[in-house]
């Protein structure tokens, strides 16, 4: 059984992520693991007579109480739901939680209608995206129905993105969703002619280990548009996509792949969830 992790601060935004994860779990026969990071220093857990220990225990008990209220929701009925409290805010340790609990997907929520712009730099969501070894699904709106039927995988199909492609391919297979691959061919200096595109895709799928590179190459839609970001949105609308899949480098996060206006447009203006996969 697959496991979905939902980090929470017990806010309305994190409940949006919980609702989305619950819908996915019901259709995918998955378990839910809800994580709260308390942000408690190890030194505060040393029992002594000062106020820090008393305050620490208060916050732990408060988190336990909040969990009781947060998880007491009718839409969780019939699902396997467990909870975990981590005392530290060291996001680099998140992969220990993922490994120990066999997590295959993280679901988080962005803040309001402005999308990821508010959380890309210096936020908990961005830090999870940066360190997580499993895909992270970032949603914007309150989930009302299950939508993971069609996903658009957009890439520059460079050698650097081969591992991300393999991870995405496995994700689509495991979660039984349809993968629509697209290469946005923009106007200007980044434009590639037919022969250049054919060579690029053949080399990519050959180095990715695909036995019949021509078959996979033919499954990539070449979408010409004035800009990459506009091409992503238009293609997603054309195929009625439910989410967009974007590779991201570990060190710089989303900004390393989505630069300039691309970062702003895709992250801020996407009206469908964005799934990030670390390169």
TrEMBL record:
<comment type="similarity">
    <text>Belongs to the universal stress protein A family.</text>
</comment>
<dbReference type="InterPro" id="IPR006015">
    <property type="entry name" value="Universal_stress_UspA"/>
</dbReference>
<dbReference type="InterPro" id="IPR014729">
    <property type="entry name" value="Rossmann-like_a/b/a_fold"/>
</dbReference>
<feature type="domain" description="UspA">
    <location>
        <begin position="156"/>
        <end position="278"/>
    </location>
</feature>
<protein>
    <submittedName>
        <fullName>Nucleotide-binding universal stress UspA family protein</fullName>
    </submittedName>
</protein>
<feature type="domain" description="UspA">
    <location>
        <begin position="1"/>
        <end position="140"/>
    </location>
</feature>
<dbReference type="Pfam" id="PF00582">
    <property type="entry name" value="Usp"/>
</dbReference>
<dbReference type="InterPro" id="IPR006016">
    <property type="entry name" value="UspA"/>
</dbReference>
């Amino acid at each position: 059984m697959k496991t979905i992790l939902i980090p929470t601060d017990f806010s309305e935004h994190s409940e949006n992520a919980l609702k989305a994860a619950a819908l996915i779990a019901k259709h995918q026969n998955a378990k839910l693991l809800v994580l709260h990071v308390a942000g408690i220093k190890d030194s505060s857990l040393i029992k002594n007579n000062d106020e820090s220990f008393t305050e620490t225990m208060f916050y732990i008990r408060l988190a336990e109480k909040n969990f009781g209220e947060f998880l007491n929701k009718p839409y969780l009925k019939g699902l396997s739901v467990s909870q975990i409290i981590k005392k530290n805010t060291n996001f680099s340790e998140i992969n220990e939680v993922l490994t120990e609990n066999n997590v295959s997907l993280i679901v988080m929520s962005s803040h309001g209608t402005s999308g990821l712009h508010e959380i890309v730099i210096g936020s908990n969501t961005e830090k999870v995206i940066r360190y997580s070894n499993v895909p992270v699904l970032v949603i914007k709106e309150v989930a009302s129905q299950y939508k993971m039927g069609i996903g658009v995988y957009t890439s520059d199909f460079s050698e650097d993105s081969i591992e991300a492609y393999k991870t995405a391919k496995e994700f689509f297979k495991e979660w039984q969703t349809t993968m629509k691959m697209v290469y946005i061919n923009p106007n200007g200096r980044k434009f590639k002619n037919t022969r250049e595109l054919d060579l690029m895709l053949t080399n990519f799928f050959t180095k990715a280990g695909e036995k019949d590179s021509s078959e996979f190459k033919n499954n990539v839609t070449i979408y010409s548009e004035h800009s990459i970001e506009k091409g992503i949105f238009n293609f997603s609308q054309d195929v009625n996509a439910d989410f967009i899949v974007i590779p991201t480098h570990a060190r710089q996060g989303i900004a390393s792949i989505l630069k300039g206006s691309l970062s702003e447009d895709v992250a801020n203006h996407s009206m469908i969830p964005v799934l990030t996969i670390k390169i």
